[in-house]
Specification:
7 strands; Aminopeptidase; alpha+beta; 194 residues; seven-stranded mixed sheet; single chain
Length: 194
């Protein structure tokens, strides 16, 4: 359990039960990623502001119990985002943010896809798999030994199948219980509460 950011202290928590699947990719994909649709681009945001990062993280993760970064203070999050091993990339469609992914090269020689997701307004238009292929290509451009990612049963139903279809393979699945602070105000599906 991480230290909670300022304002959370030892507040009440909601126990959330999930199964986390850890995945790995040991070799680069042979084909380049498909082209992004017209009007879409991916841009690396060097040292994003805390406010912009929180907008992306909170909006993408609102339905999927993304909570850990919400417990970090602004100073803690700013320090993390400035770390040279952390990279944030934003998908823009027609000039507006549509999704993001975050790479963590700190566990070198591997690279971890720490966060990946779309904003709600672009869900279901068929760009998720293409966006993921671009994230994977970006990771392999750094010549890692392997790529890692994990997903859980709180994530979108298509998350795990999409990772598998892209070339990741499941290594193990672990049952976890998260103590999510009630003060975060997250919508937690009843089926995940323990």
């Amino acid at each position: 359990m991480p230290m909670l950011g300022t304002g959370f202290g030892s507040t009440a928590v909601t126990p959330v039960g999930v199964t986390v699947t850890f995945l790995r990719m040991d070799r680069a994909l042979m084909e380049p990623p498909p082209a992004l649709p017209k009007g879409a681009r991916i841009e690396r945001v060097v040292a994003p502001t805390v406010a912009f990062y929180r907008y992306l993280y909170n909006t993408v993760g609102a339905e999927y119990v993304w909570w850990l970064r919400r417990t970090m203070t602004d100073a803690e999050l700013a320090a993390l985002l400035r770390h040279p091993g952390i990279s944030v990339y934003v998908l823009y469609i027609s000039g507006a943010p549509a999704g993001f992914f975050e790479l963590d090269a700190r566990p070198a020689p591997d690279i971890n896809l720490s966060y990946f997701g779309l904003l709600p307004h672009v869900m279901g238009i068929g760009i998720g798999g293409v966006f993921l292929r671009h994230a994977v290509a970006e990771m392999w451009d750094r010549s890692p030994r392997a790529l890692t990612v994990n997903t859980c049963t709180a994530d979108h139903l298509r998350a795990l199948p999409t990772y598998l279809r892209t070339g990741f393979r499941a290594m193990r699945a672990v049952a976890e219980v998260w103590d999510v602070p009630v003060a975060l105000g997250l919508k937690i599906p009843e089926k995940l509460k323990v």
